[in-house]
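User: Continuing from earlier, I have the next pair ready.

Assistant: Great, send them over.

User: Here they are, in order.

Assistant: Folding the first of the pair now:
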Amino acid sequence: MTTPAPRPGTPLHAAGMHRLRAVVVVAVAAIAIALTGCTPLLTPGQGNSTPDASATEGAPPELTKFYQQQIQWSPCENNLECAKVTVPVDYAQPGGDTIQLAVARLKGHNAKGNLLVNPGGPGASGIDLVRDAGNSMFSDKLRGAYNLVGWDPRGVKRSAPVNCLDASGQDAVRQLNLDNSTDAGLAQTFAEQKKVIDACKANTGPVLAHADTVSAVRDMDILRAVVMGQTKLDYAGFSYGTLLGATYASMFSDRVGKFVLDGAVDPALGSRELTLGQAKGFEDALHAYVKSCISKSGCPLAGSEDDAVGQIQALFQSVQQQPMHTNDGRVLPITDFVNGFILPLYNDQSWPVLTQAIDKALKGDGSAMLRLADQAADRGPDGKYSSNSAWAFMAYNCLDYPVSSDTASMRTEAQQLADASPTFGEFFAYGGVNCRDWPYKPVRAPAPAHYTGSNQIMVLGTTGDPATPYPWAVSLRSELGNASLLTWNGQGHTAYGRGSTCVDNAVDGFLVDGKASPDGKRC
C-alpha cells in the first residue's frame, strides 16, 4: 500500500480520548518513515557553544544562568548535531527543578543564520522534522542559507516526556469501543480516561504540571539565546507551531526576527470553537475527496457526491455497531477507523491511499485502515510506539484550554457538531472527557495575539485545510497587525513544501532574501 507523504503539522485540538483521537498527532505529517531517537554523544569540550553576550541582554536576572549556559554540540544520526539545553520546570520558581530539552541542527551549506522550526502537535518532534524531512521539505535555497534547528518541546519525546501507558496499554485503549451517547457509556469513558490520567501522573515527573504553550514559549526564548545565539529569533512554525509562534510574538515582540506561520491557529479561539472548526473542515475535505474519487475509474464509491458521502456514513455506522476484522489479530473499532480515515485527508496527494483503504473496508477488511490509524498514532509494525505524541497532546490541551465536562454541555456540543459535520461531528464530541480529571488546572486563557514588533510576520493559509481552517489564518493575520497573509488555493494541511512553486518562492524570498511579503497574495 502506498503511504502518505511525510508532512508537517497536526491539528491543535482533539475530541474525547475514546471517541476520536483524530486529531491525535499526525506529526511530521505522518509517517511513512521509521522514527528512531537522536541520542547525543556529549563528550566534554566537544563542539562547545557559549551564547553571545548581545543575545542574552534583557534576560530576567533570575533566569540569567539559563540564558548564559554553555551547551555541547556533538554528532548524531543523519548528519545532525545534537545538544541538551537546561530550562526550569516552573518559570515561577526558577530555582527549583530543571529539565533538559533535546535540540538538533542540520547544518546549512553556506548558513549565515539559524532557523528554529516546529512541526505542530502539540506533541510533535522538531528533531524528527529536521532529521526526516529537513532535506526534502525545505528548499535548497533555504537549506543553504540557514542551519535548520529543531527541538522537542517540554514533555515531548526526548525532552522530559509525558509518559502514561506502555505500548500494550495504549493498544488496549485504542481497542475500546464505547458509546458516549448513553449515560452508561459516558460514565465508562470517564472511568477509562481516569485510569489513563492516573498513569500519566504516576509515570511523569513534575513537568506534567508545566507542559503548556506559555512555558514552551519561554523555553523558545532561551533557545534563541543559547542555541541560536541571535538577538532576534527566526522561526518557521506549522499548525500548532503557529500557536507557539503567535504566543512568542505576543510575549517577546522585540525579539521577533523573520517569522513564518503556516497552517495558522487562531489563539483567540477556545476549545469548542476549535473543535467545531475542525469538524467542518474535515467534512469539507471529505466532500472534496469524494468529488475527486467518483470522477476517476476504480473508485469504490458510486453515484453522486451526496450518494458517495452517504456510503461513507453508512460504513461508519456499520463499524460503530461491529468493529471491523483485520489481519493482524486486532479489531478495528470506530475511533481508530475514523482516525485512519482522516489521516489521508491532510494531503490530497494521499487520497489514493484512502481510496484503497475504503475499497478494502467495504469488502469487510479493515487492515488497510488500521495501518493508517497506526501511522496516525506513531505505532510501527513491530507494535512499538515511536513517540509519546498522544500523551503530550493531551497534557498540553488540558493545560492550554478550559473545557466544559458536564454531561449537559457536552451533549449540547455534540448536537452542534453533528449538525455542522454530519459525517464526523459526533466523533469530535465529548472532548471534556479528556481533561475533567486532569490533576492540574488550565494555565492559559485563549486571547487574540498582540504583537508590537517592527518586523513583519508572514502568515500562510490554505483554502482547503481541514485541520487549521483558512478563516483562522485570516484572523491571526488581523490580530498580529504587522503581518501579511499568503493564501494557497489548495487542499490539505499547511502550504510550504507541498508542491506550489508560488508558495515556496514567496516563503524563501521572505526568509532568505528579506523580501516583504505582499499582504493578500494568492497562489
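And the other member of the pair:
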Amino acid sequence: MSNERGSWGSNIGFLLAAIGSAVGLGNIWGFPYKMGKSGGFTFLLIYLLLAIFVGFSIMMAELAMGRRTGKGTIGAYKELTSRFKWVGWLAVFAPFVIMSFYSVLGGYCIEYMALNLSNLAFAGAEVKTGADLFGAMLTNPFGCVMFTLLFMIICYLINRGGISGGIEKFNNVGMPALFVMLVIIIIRSLTLPGAVEGLKFMFVPGYAVEAGFIESAPSIGSVMATAGGQMFFSLSLAMGVMITYGSYLGKKENLVKNAAVIVFADTVVALMAGLAVIPAAVATYGPSAALSGPKLLFITLQDVFQTMGSVGSLFGVIFYLLVLVAAISSAISLVEVVVTFFMDRAAAKGKTGSRSRVVLLVCLAIMVEATIVAVDGLGSNGVWVPFQNSLGVVGSFNDCWLDFMDCLSEGLAMPLGALLMSIMVGWEIGSKTVLEEIHQGNSVKWVDGFLTFCLMFVVPLAMAFILGGQIGDYFSTSERSMYGVGYGVGAFVVVAAWLAAFTSPKRKARKGK
C-alpha cells in the first residue's frame, strides 16, 4: 500500500514489530508469577480462552480500523465514529504515560547490563548483593536520569528511521536475537538444582499454596480478573499500537492470520520467559523468592547470577540484554503512536511533518515526565506523589510515581478504551465496517459471526469485569476492598456506552432511521 507516512517493507517485518510491541517487561516479570500464584494450568487455560475471544477480537478490530482509515489512533476514531471519537485520545494518553516509567525501567536494564559487564571484566572484585545494588541505584537520582536518557536516545534513533527504516529494521534483528537469548537462559535455568520446583510453581494447580509461595488459593473470579488483565496488557491492546501499525499495513495482508500469529507468539514468549526466570529464582531462594515486579529482575535474578560464580556475570549480561531488547521493542511502538498522531495532524493541515523533529519533541516530552519517575526511585527518595494518603485511602496506586502513572494508563485508560471501542464497533458503526476491511486480505468467512458476537457481547462484558478488577486492585487496601465499587463502575460504563451507541446518528443512519 502506498502511504505518504511510510509502510512496512514486508509482512514479516510487520509481524516481528507487532510481536515486539506485545513482548515486553510485563511478560518477563508478570506472566510467570501471575500464572503460578493463580493456579498454574488453571490460569493458563483461562488466559488462552480470553486471548482467543477477547484479545484476538480486539486485535483484529484495531488492525482493521487502522488500515481502513490509513490514520493513527485519533484520526481513525474521528473518521469512524460520532459518539466515541474522543476515545482515540485515551489510546494516545495511555502510551505517553506508560513511557514515563517504561523508559526508567529500560534505563535500569542498561545499568544492570553494564554492572554485569564490569563484573565480567574485573573478575574477583567484590560483588554486592542484588538488594544492595538495587537500593544504591534507586537512591542515585542522577544516575537513574542519565540511564533513562540513554534509553530514550536509543528510542529516538530507532523511531527517527521511520516504520520500515527504523522500527522494522530493529525488530528484524532484535526479535530473533531475543528468542536465541531466551533459549540460552532457559537451558541454564532448567539445569540448576531444584529448578523442578519452579516448574511446579508455574504449571501445577494449587502448588503455590502447598509449597508456601502464597498463603491461600485465589477465587475463580480473582483468577479471571488476573488472567484478563495480563492478557489485555500483554497484547498491547487499547494503547493505539495496533491501530497505528495497521495504518501502515498493505491491503493484501491477511489481518486474521496476522492477529492469530501475534497472539500465539506473544503467549509462547511469555511462557518461555517464565521458564527462563522462575525455575532459577525458585531453585535459589525457594518460597522466599521475590517472583514479581522489579525485585524479580533486579534483586532476585541478580543474586541468582552471582551464585553461578564467574560464568554468572556472562549470563547476567545476556539476560539483561534480552530484557533491554524486549523493553526497546515495546517502547518504540509506544513512541510511534504519539509520533503518528502529530505526523497525521500535519498532513491534515496540508503540511509535511519532519519525522526527525517530531520524534525528538515527543522523546523530550517523555523525558520530562520520566525524570519525575526516575528521581522518585520507586518511592525511595521521598518525592511527593499525587493523592498519597488522600482521604485515608492508602493503596498501591499511590505508593510511588511509577504506581501512580501505571494506575492512570494501564489501570484506567486502557481497559476503558477497549470497552468503549468494542461497543463502538459492535453497536454503533456495526462490525460490517471492520469486516469489509478484514476480507480485503482474503480471510475466511467464519470470522464474520465470531467477530460480530465477540465485539457485541463477549468483549464489552469481559472488559467491564477487567476494568472493575483493575480499580479493585489499585484502590483496595488492607482495611477496605474496592472491588464492589470497581465492578459497579464497570457496569455503569457498559450501560452508558450502550445507550450512547444506540442513540448515535451513525447507528440510526446505518439502520435507515
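Worth noting for the second one:
Confidence is low (pLDDT under 50) at residues 391-396. The CA atoms of residues 139 and 380 lie 6 Å apart.
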